[in-house]
Records
---
Amino acid sequence: MLIRTVGTTAQRTRELVTVNANAQLQKITFVVSVVLINMTFYSILLVSVMFTGHLGHDVYLARATLGNSWANVTGYAFLVRSSHALRVLSPANSLSANSIIAPFTGMSGALETLCGQAYGARLYRMLGLYLQSSLIMSAAVSVLISVLWCFTEPLLLLLRQDPEVSRAAASFVAAQIPGLFAFSFLQCLLRYLQTQSVVTPLVVCSVAPFAIHVALAHLLVNVMGLGLAGAAAAISATFWISCLMLLAYVLRSGEFAETWKGFSVDAFKYVLPTVKLATPSAVMVCLEYWAFELLVLIAGLLPNSTVSTSLIAMCSSTEAIAYMITFGFSAAVSTRVSNEIGAGNVDRAKNAVSVTLKLSVFLAVSFVLLLASGHRLWAGLFSGSAAILSEFAAITPLMMVSIVLDSAQGVLSGVARGCGWQHLAAVTNLVAFYFVGMPLAIFFAFKLKFYTRGLWAGLICGLTCQACSLLLITLRTKWSKLAEAMQEEKANYVA
């Protein structure tokens, strides 16, 4: 009997270890897939800019970069939740005054809360209704952005951009208006599938269109000689290809029979709840986005502004690339937390937060150690200036600290989205960056004359305040009340 009991216990232990190993493997696969998807979609815009840069004159690159920057901060940034990826896409936008006018960002962030919790609660029809309500909201926002894009040239001139470059940038942006609608719908579909932990089709529907985009951009720009217009048209066409591929998969796959019941007028009832979550989600990310852009503008006021501005832009881009690791974990913890809250499994939700936070910080530390040993090589990819290389070496220790803090706050921001705390995160970002970070950055840079290092030290203070505040909110969370509130709301949901 004892032998049988020991054997049974050993077998259960092996089964438990196998289950845990499979769960960890699935989590890693999810994270890697999300990072790949995100980078692929943003690389679509980058490739078009790169093609225009080889048209034979630097002015073409300037036109495309300005147009791309304008499209990012006034359009595409409305519709996604990760501003860090935008900083990877076009570091040059940090040097443009138009970077400070981005009014909203992260319009699709509400679906992470709504769809994630509904899926965990097995209210499957709600996912389809929330998706439709988000599509309606995104379409309305896209119309407004399209109108704004029609006035790109006069607005850029108002911001004292070069007239010739502004004119070309306006045409570059105008050709992307059709793609803006596809991109907005695409973001909604991504969140809808992501909250169900469906990522493989997303990888296929991002990588395949990206390969098509490279060929299409070459055809339109180099073969047909359409220049900037061809590069922009390639962006629109690629986004529509990806959107239609993903939509066809959702409609034709039997996997979503329960979550997608077809178009319904009931979706209009949930437009307001979607907007209520999307607005603070947009503000939450936009405040952080502006803080990084504001640093670059302030750097232009420092002595030797050419070096200072280039250095801060390099640091911002490096921070953004490091954040792409965290981005996957942020999406994973948002999905897991919202699912577990919806299912009432508060212990699993808390465990997911703990494990994801530790893993993300560990990988961030690994990244900064790599940066510490290879910062000269990395900086050499941006500039050959001895002065910039020397300054980058001096600011690297500060940047290592900010990357680790950014990694922690990224995961905690994902927890906030999963729990539906976007409003708390928005207030946190306002206080952390604009009442703590930016004032200290100005004080350190100008009063204490630490210059660029002072600016980044101020940013670190803001990130510290942000991360600590979000951590405190997370630690003091009454998880059981979140689950109870979800259960109480089931009666109001459409079954």
Note: The CA atoms of residues 131 and 192 lie 6 Å apart.
---
Amino acid sequence: MTERPAQRTPNRQLAALIAEAGFSNAGLARRVDQLGLEHGLDLRYDKTSVTRWLRGQQPRGTTPALIAEVFTRRLGRRLTAQDLGLDACAPVYAGLEFAGSPDEAVDIVGGLWRKDSGSHAELRKIAFTPAGLVVPSRDWLIGRADERVARAEVPVRIPAQGRPAPPRLPAVPLDPARRRAPAERGPGQKVTGGDLAALRSVGELFRSLDDRYGGGHARQALVRYLEHELEPMLRGTYGEQTGRRLFGAAADLTRLAGWTSYDIAAHGLAQRYFVQALRLSQAAGDRAYGSYVLVTMSRQAVYLGHGREAVQLARVAQQGVGTSAPPVVQTLLHAAEARAHGLLGEVRACTAALVRAERALETARPGDEVPHWARFFDEAQLADEFGHCHRDLQQFRAAAQHAERSLQLRAPVYARSRLFCRVVLATARLGLGELDQACQLAAEAAGQAAEMRSVRAAEYVRDFERRLEPYRDAPPVRGYRDRVAALG
């Protein structure tokens, strides 16, 4: 007797969502194929494929996550594979969720830290997705600080007679090798002011290393610190005030993990860290820092050529804080918008945003309270922003003037920023026909890039070299190439 194949259960959840979204079977298949292309996947689904899914067949691999994202974009709310009656799978969009609660946020970001600190190289190969910017930025803009972030200690068990139960002693002494060292933190321990001060110091240390030597120099050490030190604190015990400060520190360090990932071109991973830093800033009740995270996301979008998304992120950041932020923060927000308009070649919009940034900085006064994360934004940084914008708009004389001013004002500790600015100046000199000077400046930058672990630094130099192609036979260019070749 022949055994019949098991009958599949029709997927009513998927059918209901298809009806809600107004998709045809062919339309859904087409959108899944298009989204797959964004991730470098050659998918060839059709209306017959969707019919099979509706009959209960489970698509394989990353497809359930892609289908869920198609519905998320269409319906404007985050949906998972399980919401569609599909099996969980390789999470293409894991880490892009804007968590519904502080505990969920800790679960998501903790998962990222653990995977990133191990040997999961595939995590650093995840693609950046512009569509993944929409939902988190919207949720941050319309969201409010969580009502409660405090975590209470586990209550003492009270027996019937009303007295605390005596502590139980282990029947067998613990193996000393398995005991937790007195200085090692475990989940459930109370978070102290000293812990918060340590987190601030760690942030300053890793920021300094990043500025001087590039994001690849100590990124893994930072991520391991987040996994082994910060996550136990987040799962510890703390009151409201300490909890807000703890989540603020977590947001800052997570953004920094994203920033260093961005610097080594792990763009999908960086995007996920930025989204989680944005959510942690909401738990901290710090709208200004959330706007800074959005600006960071905008800068990454500019770097990757997504100018329209970069403009929107900068504007959401501005809308989210209104006029309440300090002048330096306002300057930072307007400068980010200017960079995005510059990439798009929108001269008037770029110029207007630069004027707003300049005016905001002029209103800053000595003694103003400035968040620690915004103190880097000074006249040197604003001149750098002007230089980049004028370079992108091919206004090379203005670009050269501002880049030179930034280099004069910028402290040596900002080595990578100075390198970027030097390449901007070299590009401006090239645009002005000053080939000797351009090649000299670029050779200096190439030498500095060789000493850094920064993909962005190397890419700045390569961008300049691409601009050199029309002059490849000129003696200054041959000299430049000889100097760069000598660097190995």
Note: The two ends are 72 Å apart (CA to CA).
